[in-house]
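[09:14] KT: can someone run the structure on this one? pasting the chain below
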Amino acid sequence: MVCALFIVLVGLFNPAWGAELSDPILGQWKWFTNSTKVFHSDGRLTSNVGHTSTWKCLNPGEVPRKYRIFWAMGTVDTLTLDKDENRLSGKNAQGVVVSGKRLTREDPDKTPEVPAVAANLPPSQQVEPLLEPCLDAILAPLPQEPQMPRVSVEKLRATLSGEAVRAKTPSQKQICQYAIWVCDALTNGMDERAQTRAAAVSSALVPSLSNGASIVNTMPLHPGRNSGGAGEAIRKKQKDERAYADQQAQAFSSFMESSAYKAWVTKSTKLREDVMGVYTKLVQLEAAEPPVEAAK
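[09:31] RB: done, structure tokens below
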């Protein structure tokens, strides 16, 4: 038990062992227990039943790829990716056959693409494409870990700072300043979310969304593959996952009632109001700005 706990902790603190940004294992997989697993580029392995485990590529760049999974429940699997990169198969430390079939190839951690914005557009139109992806990420349920378009916001802020320096009138400079404040409000929102989540994680307040009822018993009814001892092993793993999922569901229920969650709900509402308030003022200032021809 102590050894298994050590393995899991090592995996959690070193999640990116051998992980490559374009590793072929990335994406969603249907596991032999009927649950869905998601392999992330940072070495995390998440599941629709709630737990977060870790994975490691044992032979980067070689074919066939071999992987080791350190499950949150304490077990360890060693698997091989087939040449078509659509099936994983192998055994766990107890010798039980394990496998998975690919569902998707998308990198789940890919940063949302933000449309390129022409620098000669009014500041409000440069900011507008960032509002939805940023606010969606900031205001996503706290147990989730959406990718933040932080770099896009920082690049736009730098562009707007340059425009503010080149502004020919005080009103134009004020418009640029409000656009910069929108960027700052978005960045502050991302920071607030990250800090709140980090504080909750450190005190074990943020669980993973889970539902033990989503795990289906699939022990074969007829002799053949996965019957007998292998079938019992599958049932045992499903039972372990269900128990873990139910535990996480209880933690989530407690979290929903916690002061940390309620404080975040209040804070996130204010974050949206702050961002949209500054953006609205920006649009109003632009509307009041006389056309360039009239200003001459």
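[09:33] KT: thanks! Strands lie at 27-31, 36-39, 44-47, 52-57, 66-70, 76-81, 87-92, 97-102.
[09:34] RB: yep, looked fine to me
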